């Protein structure tokens, strides 16, 4: 009986680890201190140059970083349709794009989840983009080749690049996923302002809060 109880507890713990609930936002927001080293996460490090991509947008066009005219930087954001955290940040991403794209810092949203999932597939992305009237590209990471290069692990996960595509900031958008009214620190926006002044963002790394990216099953 004791062994049976231990097995049940172990199964429950594994289920919680592999669920898509991600980090729950507390009433007071979250404290996005990075708990893993860049080496443990993998992907680009601060200061490294990100390789360009060429991904399909929801309007059928192909979008690369090089195809965006007059960019002074890029807000590359890995997000998706169904994650509650991604949904919480959609309006903030729209506002960020509308504020900073005219200044040369557009949002480029990429869905890293497996297209085998109907809720995250291309048609579902088109529907979500239409529902929210996304003013920015919403790209499909076909074959899931781009997000591992960046080291994205959750949705949303933001990578702020400068004009030369050097990674200047990695992490979360702000310190309160649940309540935009209660945000105290706008990490991403502060980083954009810093690189616009020729300064280094501080902090340059925070913990991404969201749902784990769903890798394709082989």
* Overall geometric form: globular
Amino-to-carboxy terminus distance: 36 Å
Strand order of the largest sheet: 2-1-5-4-3-7-8
How helical, in percent, are the residues? 25-40%
User: From the 3D coordinates, which CATH architecture would you assign?
Assistant: 3-Layer(aba) Sandwich
Tally the helices. 6
Name the CATH superfamily classification: Glutaredoxin
Summarize the structure.
This protein is an alpha+beta fold and 218 residues long. Helix content is 28%, strand content 16%.
Would you write up a description of this structure?
With 218 residues, the chain is α+β, with helices and mostly antiparallel strands. The chain has a single domain (35-212), classed as Glutaredoxin. It has helices spanning 2-17, 38-41, 84-100, 122-132, 147-150, 187-196; strands spanning 55-57, 62-63, 73-78, 107-111, 138-140, 154-155, 157-162, 167-171, 211-212. Strands 2-1-5-4-3-7-8 form a seven-stranded mixed beta sheet, covered by helices on one side. It has a two-stranded antiparallel sheet with strand order 6-9. β7 and β8 (167-171) form a beta hairpin.
Record keyword descriptors for this entry:
single chain; 218 residues; alpha+beta; 7-stranded mixed beta sheet; two-stranded antiparallel ribbon; 6 helices; disordered N terminus
């Amino acid at each position: 009986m004791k062994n049976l109880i231990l097995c049940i507890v172990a199964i429950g713990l594994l289920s919680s680890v592999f669920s898509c609930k991600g980090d729950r936002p507390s009433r007071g927001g979250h404290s996005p201190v990075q708990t893993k080293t860049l080496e443990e996460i993998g992907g680009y490090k601060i200061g490294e140059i990100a390789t360009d991509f060429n991904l399909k947008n929801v309007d059928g066009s192909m979008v690369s970083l090089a195809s965006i005219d007059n960019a002074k930087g890029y807000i590359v954001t890995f997000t998706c349709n169904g994650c509650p955290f991604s949904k919480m940040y959609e309006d903030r991403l729209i506002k960020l794009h509308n504020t900073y794209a005219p200044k040369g810092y557009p949002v480029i949203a990429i869905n890293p989840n497996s297209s085998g999932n109907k809720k995250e597939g291309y048609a579902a992305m088109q529907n979500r983009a239409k529902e929210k009237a996304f003013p920015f590209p919403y790209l499909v990471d076909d074959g899931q080749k781009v997000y591992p290069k960046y080291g994205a692990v959750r949705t949303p996960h933001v990578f702020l690049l400068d004009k030369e595509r050097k990674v200047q900031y990695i992490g979360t958008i702000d310190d309160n996923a649940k309540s935009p009214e209660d945000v105290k620190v706008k990490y991403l926006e502060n980083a954009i302002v810093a690189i616009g002044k020729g300064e280094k963002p501080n902090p340059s790394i925070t913990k991404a809060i969201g749902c784990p990216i769903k890798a394709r099953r082989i």
